[in-house]
Amino acid sequence: MPLVNMKPLLRHAMDNHYAVAAFNLVDYNTTKGMVKAAEGLNAPVICQTSAKTIKYFSHKEIVSWVRTVAEDSPVPVVLHLDHCKDIEMIEECAKAGWTSIMIDASEFPFEENLEMSKRVRDIAEKYGVGMEAELGQIMGVEDDMVVDEADSVLTDPEDAKKFCDALDLSAFACAVGTAHGYYKGEPKVDFDRIAAINAATNTPMALHGGTGLSDETFAKAIARGSAKVNISTNLKHVFVQSFVDYHRANPDDYEPLRVVDAQYQACKALFASFIEKFGGTDQGSAFLQSQSEMA
Ligand code: 13P
């Protein structure tokens, strides 16, 4: 089916107490693996791209991969742009076929962040796509952005309300104690803050920094309004390690298709485990049914 807009999908997820898994794709095979894993579970999925990945490949290549696998699939698939600071690039994505875009102006003071996010809201409206924006600063390393623990700022629920009221977001990214990359110690996720932000904003929350969180943490965050959970670092590690492991186990096998298939199977199994954990199973057709009833 054609790619879907993230907004109604995340509203459905929040209302039905599950989260849609969002994975940062690496190449065609990881894109296919996430959609096939979702298909096997009748679940929706978000294929998301970092700005760095778009620069390495191109808008055209990425859209063609995601459309190719989604069009042959019965489950809802979103193509989302993860953390982007460049408004021109954001508009290019919306124009090229992304069905959701993210502006990350969280490093700027509130008013400046809001003003930049409003410009992106206008782009999202113009192209009829979903939108995510961020308030507060999430710790860790994402693309080439580094936020130290000392610089991270947890999101204030009252500011969150002002921000979300002005933007009508599909997903709200905020700092609630999670971090991009592997956790150094025990993650200190502020569940009361997640609940307070969700009560104040009534906006599906995007939980960033999914790698390394426990099943219990996911369940508690999702129960409090996290409707999108981002996973990137874990995929990067499985992507590289599965390739290396295959070669170590089969040092004389130089048939590339067997190597990339081992990698594909490992990544697909990883995607399926997260989709299941976030409660996505059987929500693909449930979402589509809810949309046809509304039409
Ligand atoms: P991890 O790299 O910690 O999985 O976080 C991913 C993320 O939040 C992407 O925006």
Explain the overall architecture.
The protein has a single domain, classed as TIM Barrel. The chain is 52% helix and 16% strand. The chain has twelve helices and eleven strands. The chain has helices at 6-15, 28-41, 51-56, 59-71, 87-96, 110-127, 157-167, 191-201, 215-223, 233-249, 256-277, 283-294, and strands at 20-24, 45-49, 77-81, 100-103, 130-135, 139-142, 145-147, 171-174, 179-180, 205-207, 226-231. An eight-stranded parallel beta sheet has the order 3-2-1-11-10-8-5-4, with helices on both faces. A three-stranded mixed beta sheet has the order 7-6-9, with no helix packed on it. Helix 6 (110-127) packs parallel to helix 7. The longest helix has 22 residues, at 256-277. It is globular and about 60 Å long. The model has no long low-confidence stretch (mean pLDDT 96). 1,3-dihydroxyacetonephosphate (13P) is lined by residues 24, 82-83, 142, 180-181, 208-211, 230-234.
